[in-house]
Amino acid sequence: MNPSYPSNLTSEQWKLLSGLIPKPKTGGRKRRVDMQAIVNAILYILCAGCAWRMLPNDFPKWKTVYHYFRQWRKDGTWQEMHERLRLWVRVSQNREASPSEAIMDSQSIETATMVSKEVGYDSGELLHKYFVV
């Protein structure tokens, strides 16, 4: 197993997720890669924000890790893992499994200081210009 990184799953978290890992396809070669190392490598990439090719050498090969990430993203496995961990965190913090409320916030910021305010199209402005509303 690779050295401990802050992004690695705990043994409790791995027990929670290991049942979600799709079984290997029948026929062909046997799966030789450690699936916990694959998940830890994906979490390392997500937490570190680095490129796949910059994955440390103590993880499986980056192409293998990326293959599983892509496959799990397409088939919904990654979403299921996320949901299972989210529920685990909420329950471990003595909170309801599902939130009862949500807060949405937005912030408007000026994206470029050199752009004129007249750039862009606002259909509402057109209505006010030609019709008295």
Mean pLDDT: 83
Radius of gyration: 23 Å
Instruction: Give the helix level as a range of percent.
Output: 40-55%
User: What series of H and E elements makes up the topology?
Assistant: HHHHH
Largest sheet: none
Shape: globular
What is the end-to-end distance?
69 Å
- Oligomerization status of the protein chains: single chain
- Counting DSSP E segments of at least 2 residues, the number of strands comes to 0
Contiguous uncertain segments of 5+ residues: none
How many helices? The count is 5
Describe this structure in words.
It is a single chain. The protein is mainly α. The chain is built from 5 helices and no strands. It has helices at residues 11-18, 35-48, 62-75, 77-92, 123-130. Helix 2 (35-48) crosses helix 3. The protein is globular, with a radius of gyration of 23 Å. The mean pLDDT is 83.
